Amino acid sequence: MINNISFKKSILLLVILSIVVFINGCRIVNADSIFNNKNIHVYHIKGSLNGIAIDGSGNIWVTNASNRTVTQISSTGSILETYPLGDSPLNIAIDRHGNIWILMEFSLTELNPVPSGGVHIKNIHNKNLEWGSANSGGIAINGGNNILVSHDDTIMEFSHSGSIEYKINDNSLDLHGGDIAIGYGAVWVVGRRSITRLNDSGLKIYSIGSYTTAIALDTFNSGIIWVTYAQRYGREGDVIKLNSSGATLGMYKVGVNPEAIATDGSGNVWVANQGDYINNDNGSVSELSPSGVLLKTYNVGQSASAIAIDDSGNVWVACRNDVYELINVATPVKTPLVSYLK
Questions:
Q1: What sections of the chain are H helices per DSSP?
Q2: For the chain, which residues make up each domain, given as ranges?
Q3: DSSP conformational letter for 208
Q4: Which residues neighbour 151 within 8 Å (Cβ) at sequence distance 6 or greater?
Q5: 34-38, 52-56, 158-162: the lowest-pLDDT one
Q6: How far is it, in rounded angstroms, from Cα 20 to Cα 10?
Q7: CATH fold of 38-326, please?
Q8: How much of the chain, in percent, has pLDDT values that exceed 90?
């Protein structure tokens, strides 16, 4: 009798799995998510994924460094198109008009969506002008729709037409082409072991004391800044909570090798942890409360390197060869993520 009941339960589980896979079509559902009542959809895009952004229509744009492409995924979960870029992308942002801006190894590229479908690709700066080769960089859009980038030891602001508004180049600033965020009356740039604040009063560096990797401004709790850093490769990292004056308010443990960070509409903090990819360990996503309490950890693929939240509360994570979508786990965020913070 017990064996018969177990057999019936197994058959029922297989039927449920088949229905889920059929309904989701091209989406691949992580079986573990069914038991947790939390769907996790996986999109296979071979290469080396390293950047992710979401436009106002809910489309997801993912950059691929090794294939030198950007892939568009629809809000309903279909892989729509992959566009060649001709150069290795480093990071991506989307402005309020829906134009996609991609920081490249040697240039800045703009993709203008065409109403009939597809995009028009425009190279703004070529490799002979402002910068040389790099393997990291940050990009963000400010409230005036200008584009700010950090690349090597340079910070630049471009107008929407591509002209340079200002440029700072100083190898003593510990910029290192790190992540960049805009808000609270300043531009914030991640360095090797610090963050740099630029505003009308000038430039100020705040030492973190370890390998800083990413920054996010809390759109829910005004004046709060979150910075990820790793003390040593292969070990758990930390996220630091600061105020807009640079004072440390707290430090909290996350996963192994934290690489990217985002905040949702209720102030929760989402951290993409690369994991120990040298030993083929998978990455993870840590969810923390606004007070720094670890709420939950989600398992994702290897080398989780970028994270974004859409206006339906889905969390999107770019891993080495896959994009993970954590369904309805966060409080929605208005997209595209353009700085409206003052």
A1: 2-24, 31-35
A2: 1-27, 38-326
A3: -
A4: 90, 103, 130, 131, 134, 137, 177
A5: 34-38
A6: 16
A7: Methylamine Dehydrogenase; Chain H (2.130.10)
A8: 50
Amino acid sitting at position 342? K
Tokens describing residue 32: 């573990």
pTM: 0.86
Cα angle: 130, vertex 197, 97; to 5 degrees: 65
Query: Residue 195 has which token pair?
Result: 């963050």
Residue 263, beta-bridge partner list: 269
The per-residue pLDDT for 130 is: 52
pLDDT in tens, 301-333: 999 999 999 999 999 999 999 999 999 999 999
User: Contact 320/303 with Cβ under 8 angstroms?
Assistant: yes
108 burial level (CB within 10 Å; 0-12, 13-18, 19+):
buried
Instruction: Please give the distance of CA 295 from its chain centroid, rounded to a whole number.
Output: 20
Strand partners, 325: 41, 316
pLDDT digits (tens, 9 = 90+) for 241-267: 999 988 999 999 999 999 999 999 999
State the Cα–Cα distance between residues 194 and 211, nearest whole angstrom. 8
Mean pLDDT, to the nearest integer, of 279-296? 93
Phi/psi of residue 46, each to 5°? -65, 145
Phi then psi for residue 244, to 5 deg, are: -70, -10
Long-range pairs, 12-15, Cβ under 8 A, ≥24: none
- Cβ 53 vs Cβ 93: under 8 Å: yes
Burial, 120: exposed, middle or buried (Cβ in 10 Å; 0-12, 13-18, 19+)? exposed
Task: Residue count of the chain, please give it.
Answer: 342
Q: Which residue type, as a one-letter code, is found at position 98?
A: G
The encoded tokens of residue 87 equal 């150069």
Residues 324/116/104/46 CA torsion (nearest 10 deg)? 40
Sign of the C-alpha dihedral, residues 259, 263, 264, 270?
Answer: positive
